[in-house]
Amino acid sequence: MLAAPCAGASRQLATRLPAAASAARPPNGRRDVTAAAVKRRTKRTEAVGEDGAVSRDQAQKLKVLHDVIANINMKHGDGALMSLGDKPLAVAVSPSGCLTLDRALGGGYPKGRIVEIFGPESSGKTTLALHAIAEIQKAGGNAVFIDAEHAFDQTYAKKVGVDTSALLVSQPDHGEMAFNILDELVRSGSVDIVVVDSVSALTPRSEVEGDIGTPQVGAQARLMSLALRKVAANASKSGCTIIFLNQLRYKVGVLYGNPETTSGGQALKFYSSIRLDIRSKDKVVVGTDVIGNRVKVKVVKNKVAPPFEIAEFDMIFGHGIDALGCVLDAGESLDVVARKGAYYYYGETRLGQGREKALAFLRENPEVRQQIESAVHEALLSTRREVSRGRPVGGDDSGFDFAPAAAEGDLFPEGEDLDAGLDDLEAKIERQQQLAGSGA
Question: How far apart (Å, rounded) are the C-alpha atoms in residues 62 and 66?
Fold first, then answer.
């Protein structure tokens, strides 16, 4: 028998097909379409569907579509072609570790997608990623940290909340090795989140093995472009979230506009479903001591929720994100907590005069904090339902990745010449920019 098409599409189409659509098929999996069978089908002038009578031509098209869906799913696997009704509109998410940021993201980091976090040095990129790992581990998931910079701080990760005994860490020798490890982990379907720190440290093998000072124009851009084509498809199928941390660079010769750009070429910008720009805004001061930074995160790209949202929260040195402050700020922004004059209220409960006293009240009354957190989560879920119905998202028409299964095997086998036969547009662009800069 032919493999059945996806359940939703089958139910929708079956009610509108002629009875002949369920005819038996021979053992070889193909329908025995004889002249007599075709004649019997064409005699039928109408097929009654759920919406009433359908013309003979429409019924025939539906029958053919039914068979095409079955054949495609048989050749390429279940789900290769499906109706949108077969897949939930809302993309599953995982918490970021900060309710304020969850609100800006539309609920959290989307599963099965690529996320890029970029910003200046010491702006909080790694801290943000470590909190995402901690949240995945709390839910019982598996996490991997690919430390391309060879600078992972285990002590700090513990303070942020990461279970370092369960965290898998890799320190690859070069970019190709990093992507081979990443792709194998993602294809296994056994990990829930992978953090790559950072894109700038994903040095191509040709550069590592070559002499210092030997020009390798566009090599990293080619590496990123080739790898992401495969990794993005595999992540979508396995449901693994991949977070790339990236550094800022400055364009040469830019007189107008923003001279900042991220390293690694253009590929990551296109393949990322979410891009976060994180910056330090103010110092967090207690008395005369600076205990942290107030950071501002702008969602510059979001394919699963409305983009351009902004989140502000405190990062405390040695501890990470101030989760309690995020609860209060998110509650206020979602109208769970009301501020009347200088006072904060949760329903009829007065939390305190001013932000610091309100935070002190929540520390002393964890049951009230839990109630506010639950109300915030419910408000976020309600917002996600509205977004799912209206789909007012930026940069994506569907919100889904219908990519075919990527072939197994290493992305970059040992000894393979990455430059052989490549005509990469990004490398050309980067080369032109460097030549323009050297001539300026």
Answer: 6
Q: Are residues 310 and 333 in the same domain?
A: no
Element (H, E) at 4: none
What domain range includes position 292? 93-207+218-320
Token pair for residue 349?
């409960």
For residues 261 and 372, state if they share a domain. Answer: no
The CA distance from 113 to 273, in Å, is: 6
Number of domains in the chain: 2
Number of other CB atoms surrounding residue 305 within 10 Å: 28
Cα separation, 36 vs 198, whole angstroms:
65
CATH number reported for the structural domain that contains residue 379 in this entry: 3.30.250.10
State the Cα torsion 418-404-110-6 to the nearest 10°: -170
* Alpha helices for 175-289 (secondary structure H): 175-188, 205-209, 219-238, 267-271
Are residues 326 and 310 part of one domain?
no
Bridge partner residues of 284 (DSSP): 292
Q: How far apart are CA 298 and CA 101, in angstroms?
A: 9
Distance CA 222, CA 431 (A): 12
Main-chain dihedrals φ then ψ at residue 206, nearest 5 degrees: -60, -30
Residues 264 and 142 in one domain: yes
CATH of residue 252's domain is 3.40.50.300
Tokens of 281: 């805004």
Please state the pTM of the whole predicted model: 0.74
Distances (CA, A) of 80 to 14, 76, 236, 339, 402: 19, 6, 13, 51, 7
Please, which residues bridge with residue 65 across strands? none
Q: Name the region of 110 (left: φ>0; alpha: ψ -120 to 50; beta: rest).
A: beta
Per-residue pLDDT of the chain (440 residues; tens, 9 = 90+): 444 444 555 555 444 444 444 444 444 444 444 444 444 444 444 444 455 555 778 888 988 998 999 899 899 877 778 776 665 556 899 999 999 999 999 999 999 999 999 999 999 999 999 999 999 999 999 999 999 999 999 999 999 999 999 999 999 999 999 999 999 999 999 999 999 999 999 999 999 988 887 778 889 999 999 999 999 999 999 999 999 999 999 988 888 888 999 999 999 999 999 999 999 999 999 889 999 999 999 999 999 999 999 999 999 999 999 999 999 999 999 999 999 999 999 999 999 999 999 999 999 999 999 999 999 999 988 877 665 555 444 444 333 333 344 445 666 666 554 444 444 555 555 665 565 555 54
250 & 277 share domain: yes
Write the DSSP symbol of residue 2: P
Q: Does one domain contain both 245 and 378?
A: no
User: Would 404 be classed as within a structural domain?
Assistant: no
